[in-house]
Amino acid sequence: MNKIILTGDRPTGKLHIGHYVGSLRRRVELQNSGLYDKIFVFEADAQALTDNIENPEKVRQNVIEVALDYLAAGLDPSKTTLFIQSQIPELCELSFYFMDLVSVSRLQRNPTVKTEIQMRGFSGESIPVGFFTYPISQAADIAMFKATTVPAGDDQEPMLEQCREIVRRFNNIYGETLVEPNILLPENAACLRLPGTDGKAKMSKSLGNCIYLSDSADEVNRKVKTMYTDPEHLQVNDPGHLEGNTVFTYLDAFATDEQVARYTNDYATLQEMKDHYTRGGLGDMKCKKLLMAVLQETLEPIRQRRAEYEKDIPAVYEILRKGCEVARAAACETMDEVRRAMKINYFDDRALIEEQARRFQK
Fold this sequence. Notes:
Blueprint: E1 4-9, H1 17-33, E2 38-43, H2 45-48, H3 56-73, E3 81-84, H4 90-98, H5 104-109, H6 111-119, H7 129-132, H8 134-144, E4 149-151, H9 157-174, E5 182-184, H10 217-225, H11 246-254, H12 257-264, H13 270-279, H14 284-310, H15 313-342, H16 350-361
Parallel strand pairs: 1-2, 2-3, 4-5
């Protein structure tokens, strides 16, 4: 069996460093590892429209922003197929068939769906059907490309489990056709769900607590300077707390011991800095200056690559167009298998046609 990766993002805004450590950085590493036969990364613009139906221009504009972030982060179109969800109509067809394999009550029990519905203020009969069936659409995305591995955060595990259930039921009814995927979580626990700069549970565009991959160096430093730390660490000599301290969460996600030693001269490892902070005598600003340096080292190459791609936007659209062609060819192959398994490939089944001809000739 081929080892295939599929993952993507909703183009509702520029990508931030939470996306980067949560999955984007890992995608680039996996792309360059040579361990996978195929890698698909897509922009889920159709899913983004489920709660932006009255603002399609927002999605339309952000398709290019996300594409630039992908390329700037290091995704290589010669190794990774970059495509746009809405340009693969076969996904709608597979979603339609999958709807017959899931009950309303099962969708209602999906914790990710429940959380997203609450976040967007939907309730009862106001929930758009397209948004409610989001797990079905996502299952179709994954199953269509026979993904064996989906890099994602732990909040997506319920969605992956629902996908596995759908694929399992399809295969039980129609025969082994589709592939059950596995989730690939970030190895660094700090990357599972990076908090916002204000200490909120998750970095979110709507809360305005993001550091974007495309932020300038000055913007990054400004955001780090105002970052939430330990409210009880009022004086430098006060013992500090690491839990809930956003600066140290970010350092866990981004900093290596080599960087800590190079940028501080006082500590050989991040743990040494943590120990000093917890016993007292280390100010928050020194920790923030380390974080600024580490983030700038990470983001500067990304900013430079983005600036190069921004010089030729038509070329970026051409990358996406070619990626859509590759993705659609793969989708057509899968749908041929699905239709054959479901016995709805009427015009391709010569045996069926000949059998019916004989039946009616009797």
